[in-house]
Design brief:
The complex is a heterodimer. Chain A is an alpha+beta fold. Helix content of chain A is about 60%, strand content about 15%. Chain A has 11 helices and 6 strands. Chain A has a 4-stranded antiparallel beta sheet, with no helix packed on it. In chain A, α6 crosses α7. Chain A is extended. Chain B is about 35% helix and about 25% strand. Chain B is globular. In chain B, α3 packs across α4, α3 packs parallel to α5 (about 140-155) and α4 crosses α5. By secondary structure, chain B is an alpha/beta fold. Chain B has helices spanning about 45-50, 75-80, 95-105, 115-125, 140-155, 170-185, 200-205, 225-230, 235-240; strands spanning about 1-10, 15-25, 30-35, 60-65, 65, 80-85, 160-165, 190-195, 210-215, 215-220. Classes of the chains: A alpha+beta, B alpha/beta.
Chain lengths: ~350, ~240
């Protein structure tokens, strides 16, 4: 009956789309194709109403949209300006391939600047004073503040994800063991970390742990760690606590017969854990794990509080110089959305691939 | 080979059940022992105690003279010599058929790759499933899965095989193929302890039948004597119900 309906219905494609989405149950509410199309239209009408009303509101308060100013926060052409360092004179100007070497002797010493042709206006013997522009020319393309911030966010999230998974798996395995030292440590870790706000933890990691550790490092002649690393630590430890619980649930969902089969063939507890239980558990915990790492990307926005210039802090700094508040915050949100969306697409792909087995 | 000396076992969850009460038995090498009894009689618990999947509260089990309930015993080396086949197959779903058979050989026996693959190939042929070596367990029928499980247990070259109701979860038309494999094993002289309801199998290959009820061994004997001429009323009633 379902097949017949698909063939005869004028909106066969649409009803197919409905069928694909219904993987929960085969019980369907039959509705006419026209009702379906109207419903789809309703979605777009709602979407345009939301965007339209925001736009209308900004027009009403006389906001000047300047999207054309945004690209320079990703890439801009830098200008290089060279200044004289003291009182003195231009010694020589000599051609060097397609550039010129300008040698200047001042009371601060002798210096040679290599500059492109046509970027200076001096002749040999001219006097210079401090602050005089010797040459000014265009440098290459430079990444803008948003591009740098995006890169920092990606880097921090990536490293924290890896440490978070490691912590979570180790903690999860410890959590299900019978040994009190492992089990209680894992329980204490989870309860302590889940019970306090991430922002407070970041502060503790940076101002308490960071201060003491950097002092100890310096006393032993080791260079101190960047704020970035304390941020990564805080995020990994925070995410790890949640992953412990996810891994535990995954392990407990494995049928006990699997353990019995493995142990009865003489495998040790850890062989059974790493070859039988974890591979199966990881497959089932992929979706909640993805949710956790999407949270991690978003939570990295808090790291601006300890002066790590990730995407959110970069946006804030961009706004203080440009005053393009609306554009930059909207852009910032879209960039986060792009990152989280890409991640969830990757996970969905992985899920589909492992589901075929 | 296995000496069971007066073991007791009580389950407290969900409510108190005396699963084993003063069970003693001796299983000789090369013997095929079939354990039967009504549901809840403790026959599975008895079998699972033999390789310490369950621990008894008191009593001893000596496997080749080694006390398996002694905390100092390395149970893994004992278990490596005892193959076990379960009612629900328990194949590893994330590994292929040959992966299932290979794994314990690699981890426990530390066999080199060539040797264990040769062994796997040979065993899959023996249980008649070599065509499915690269298939996933979920794509096999119940009978095929159980035959792979037997091959997996045999891959360790066990001295004894434990069967925990191997045919109870199978569709009727698949029971035959699994029993065939088990009969072949018995004829090859494998020591076997089988919990099963397959009376035909018991009659044909068992050296001894043990009947359990309420955690106790009620009666034991050769199949002929046991089926034709049971001495206890409880045994007679049970046989009347299932035959």
């Amino acid at each position: 009956m379902n097949q017949g309906r698909q063939k005869t219905s004028s909106a066969g494609l649409f009803s197919k789309a409905i069928n694909m989405e219904q993987n929960v149950s085969n019980i369907k509410r039959l509705s006419s194709p026209i009702a379906y199309i109207l419903s789809v239209c309703g979605f777009f009408v709602l979407l345009f109403m939301v965007i339209g009303s925001v736009y209308y509101a900004t027009v009403a308060v006389d906001y000047q949209w300047r999207w054309f100013k945004v690209p320079k926060y990703f890439m801009y052409k830098s200008t290089i300006t060279l200044y004289a360092e003291g009182f003195g004179e231009i010694d020589t100007i000599a051609a060097n391939k397609d550039k010129y070497d300008i040698t200047v002797t001042t009371d601060a010493g002798e210096r040679t600047y290599t500059v492109p042709e046509g970027t200076f206006d001096w002749t040999e013997g001219d006097m210079v004073s401090p602050g005089d522009i010797i040459a000014s020319y265009e440098g290459g393309w430079q990444p803008g503040i948003l591009a740098k911030g995006l890169w920092v966010t990606l880097k921090i999230s990536f490293i924290a994800t890896i440490f978070g998974i490691l912590l979570g798996i180790i903690g999860g395995v410890a959590r299900v063991s019978n040994t009190p030292v492992l089990k209680w440590s894992a329980m204490a870790y989870v309860e302590v970390i889940r019970g306090s706000p991430l922002l407070v933890q970041i502060m503790i990691f940076y101002f308490v742990l960071g201060t003491t550790m950097n002092k100890i490092l310096m006393m032993n002649g080791i260079p101190k760690l960047d704020a970035e690393w304390y941020g990564i630590m805080a995020l990994s430890v925070f995410t790890g606590a949640y992953v412990v619980e996810i891994v535990r649930a995954g392990i407990e969902a494995i049928h006990p017969g699997q353990v019995e089969a493995a142990r009865s063939s003489g495998m040790t507890y850890f062989q059974c854990m790493f070859h039988i239980i974890l591979p199966q558990a990881l497959k089932t915990i992929l979706p909640p794990l993805a949710g956790q790492f999407i949270n991690l990307i978003k939570d990295s926005s808090l790291l601006g509080m300890i002066s790590i210039r990730e995407l959110t802090k970069a946006t804030r700094e961009g706004i203080t110089t440009s005053l393009q508040t609306f554009e930059l915050w909207i852009l910032c949100a879209i960039l986060y959305l792009l990152m989280t969306f890409t991640l969830s697409m990757c996970v969905q792909y992985l899920e589909r691939r492992t589901a075929t087995k | 080979m296995i000496d069971v000396i007066s073991i007791y076992k009580t389950f407290y969850v969900p409510h108190e059940v005396k699963a084993l009460v003063d069970v003693s038995n001796k299983i000789e090498a090369g013997e095929v022992v079939v354990v039967i009894g009504p549901s809840g009689s403790g026959k599975s618990t008895f079998l699972r105690c033999l390789n310490r999947l369950e621990t008894a509260e008191s009593g001893k089990i000596l496997v080749d003279g080694v006390d398996i309930f002694d905390p100092k015993t390395n149970i893994n080396t004992v278990r490596a010599e005892m193959g076990m086949v379960f009612q629900s197959f328990n194949l590893y779903p994330h590994l292929t058929v040959q992966g299932n058979v290979n794994l314990a050989q690699k981890l426990v026996r530390k066999r080199p790759k060539k040797e264990r693959e040769e062994k796997t190939r040979m065993l899959l042929e023996k249980v008649g499933i070599s065509a499915k070596a690269k298939a996933w367990p979920s794509n096999l029928s119940g009978g095929q899965q159980q035959r792979v499980a037997i091959a997996r247990a045999l891959a360790m070259d066990p001295k004894i095989m434990l069967f925990d109701e191997p045919t109870s979860a199978l569709d009727p038309e698949m029971i035959g193929e699994v029993l065939e494999v088990m009969k072949t094993l018995a004829k090859e002289g494998m020591t076997m302890v089988c919990v099963t309801h397959e009376m035909g199998f018991a009659r044909e290959v068992a050296d001894r039948v043990i009947f359990m009820d309420e955690g106790m061994i009620v009666e034991e004997g050769t199949p002929e004597k046991f089926y034709k001429n049971p001495s206890h009323d409880r045994t007679k009633l049970f046989l009347k119900q299932i035959l």
